[in-house]
Design brief:
The structure is a homodimer of 163-residue chains.
Chain A: H1 13-41, H2 45-56, E1 61-63, H3 64-70, H4 75-87, E2 91-95, E3 103-107, H5 109-129, H6 136-156
Helix pairs in contact in A: 1-5, 2-5, 3-4
The structure holds a DNA duplex (30 and 30 nucleotides).
DNA sequence: TCAATGTCACTGAACGCTCAACTACATCAC
DNA sequence: GTGATGTAGTTGAGCGTTCAGTGACATTGA
């Protein structure tokens, strides 16, 4: 198929099947999780991620560029996202005390409350659609596989936002 | 964390680690693949998927709603996407011969050529970033895991577009 | 035959993301 | 110091997706 004059290492039938299953599983899973989160808590998954990362920091605050890194995001996307989170009163910006270029995103009380309200439902959804479907051995396999995929990609573009 | 008065089945440390690795691996992998495809072939992954599905059909044609289903897409998204593919001359629309509500998307010669030009690079990228990172046993595991995640999600919303 | 209901596909507005500037500040070399 | 380069963060335009709504046609049942 698709006239092959080059030395392309095409996928064989088994690999095709794996790739399709992987593609479809991901699409379905993340669409579902994002949809349920938006429906129940009026926040897209990207916002949820940002709130989670902030909530894990001491002082519930983090510099914008570091927040972008831990969220696998870009500075641009984060800047837009934090602007919208600020409109909702869930995050506020402060200027960095030492580096005058810097901005620090701080999770507000309302933001933490919104996260606390959203988390149980979301975690349940992750369980229902992911962990409950897998055996303990498969969960362990999934972790190893994910790390094997992730780590090389982290090394190629470690700074200044992933994509 | 996050004051727990309900009976939420929170993720333990090991599950957290798995979930984070899975999230990050997916984000990095699909961002990378989409980025390389856009850069090398000027088409987002969603378009590529549509062209692939069409190319696999007899006559390289498929009804819109069926194309939406096999692409894990919605009719709305597909309608917009095909409109843009039509502007590029890669797909054309015909009216369904029997059901006068229906529209049929047909892959043009140019569309097939664009796909043939894009495929080798994309397949290589999938190999580099996915299959080359995994052992044969892990590939087999990934297939089983993906199917275990996918199949229940397919049953819940089988018709009228996934999300 | 005819109304009610369902299905197919399209459309426009709103939203989030990407990309390419751009400003402001920091750092480095000389 | 001064100029060059690097880094932090923001902004606006363009693109793709989602959502709600719409019109056209098909199907069903009385």
């Amino acid at each position: 198929m698709l006239g092959d004059v080059t030395s392309t290492r095409w996928l064989d039938a088994e690999e095709q099947r794996t790739w399709r299953a992987f593609l479809d599983a991901n699409k379905l899973l993340f669409d579902r999780l994002d949809h349920e989160l938006s429906r129940d808590s009026a926040m897209p998954h990207g916002y949820y991620e940002i709130l989670v990362r902030l909530s894990e920091q001491p002082g519930r605050a983090l510099r914008m560029s570091q927040l972008a890194q831990t969220s696998q995001s870009t500075r641009s996307r984060l800047s837009h996202a934090v602007a919208r989170l600020e409109e909702r009163g869930w995050v506020r910006r402060e200027s960095h005390p030492e580096d005058r270029r810097g901005a620090v995103a701080v999770l507000t009380g309302e933001g933490f409350a919104a996260l606390a309200a959203a988390a149980p439902g979301h975690v349940e959804a992750v369980r229902r659609h992911l962990f409950d479907r897998l055996t303990p051995a498969q969960v362990e396999q999934l972790r190893a596989i994910s790390e094997a995929i992730r780590d090389p990609l982290l090394e190629v573009a470690p700074s200044s936002g992933s994509p």
